[in-house]
Amino acid sequence: MPKLFSRAMRAFRLVGVPALAFCLAALCAPAVARAETITVTHWGGQFYGAPYAVAMDKGFFKAHGADVTGILTAPGGGTAVRNTLAGGIPFGEVSLAAAVQAINAGEKLIIVAAGTQSVADQMWVVKKGSPLHGLKDLAGKRIGYTVPGSDSNMVILMALKANGMTAQQVHLVPAGDLGANLSAVLSGALDAGFSDSLFYAQNPTVIQPIFWVKDVISPRMMQSVCITTSEFTHAHPDIVRGIIAARREGLDYLRQHVDEAAEIMAHAYSNPDVALFRTHMQELVAMEYWSDGKFDYEGMNHMVEGLQITGQLKAAPDWSKMVDTSFLPADLRAAR
Fold this sequence. Notes:
The protein is built from 15 helices and 10 strands. The chain is an alpha/beta fold. The chain folds into 2 domains: about 35-120 and about 220-330, D-Maltodextrin-Binding Protein, domain 2; about 120-215, Periplasmic binding protein-like II (D-Maltodextrin-Binding Protein, domain 2, 3-Layer(aba) Sandwich), CATH 3.40.190. The strands form 3 sheets. Strands 2-1-3-10-4 form a 5-stranded mixed β-sheet, sandwiched between helices. Residues about 1-35 have low confidence and may be disordered.
């Protein structure tokens, strides 16, 4: 209170009584949530962010007291975690493997909700007309993924293992986002690159799948999770709950209005091909791509197998030390 009084008196000496009244009102007013950004991995390219786009468009964030007005993107992995920590609101949907690695490295992060829960839309592609036709054909070849610690990094390691191969039998290359993987495949810098069904549908004349993930391993994997900092959960628990609730409401709306949600996404991603977005959105809804926030620990354990393959994890994580379900709506707190 002494600091508040001294600041008000300085204002009074400078410009008089009206300024004093204004300053006191401003200083004593309750804090309100500012319009801010959060982070969603691969925003602008892949569809992790669809529930957020719908929630922003429909005003669900504001309705839940979390005025999220923008999304920061990242090519996956640790970059998404770092962007989350640097965002206006330190909240992000990132690769589960990257979140686990960051927490194990000492970052004071908490996993507060599940994100996407299937990799059925993912694939690796080669140049159109390539003589390579299956995963085993990639022995000794250069295989792209996005960035270390990303979902694609985990998936290619598990796909190789499921086919009796090791990472030492190929040359794994962190190539960047899907566009960068495509460019590297077309230029010959990569023999195979990471892609998904939407990106393939946009480029069918120049690339072809060499394998779909769903054909070599179980697609039931918790790709992404929502994280924030321990400090932020203590300082702003209502904002964390509000973001999770708004995302869930956005997902519910998406499922009920798939075509409209596709239009919202096409606008958010500045893509004029709304028809293609509609088809892709329908595919993702059918495969139950997005979680409503409930944790699937079996799917989570499956996703981090890649960290175990590389020796970065000796055993399955102790989720009780990394996950806090208290910010989820009550009906989502029981594990799947």
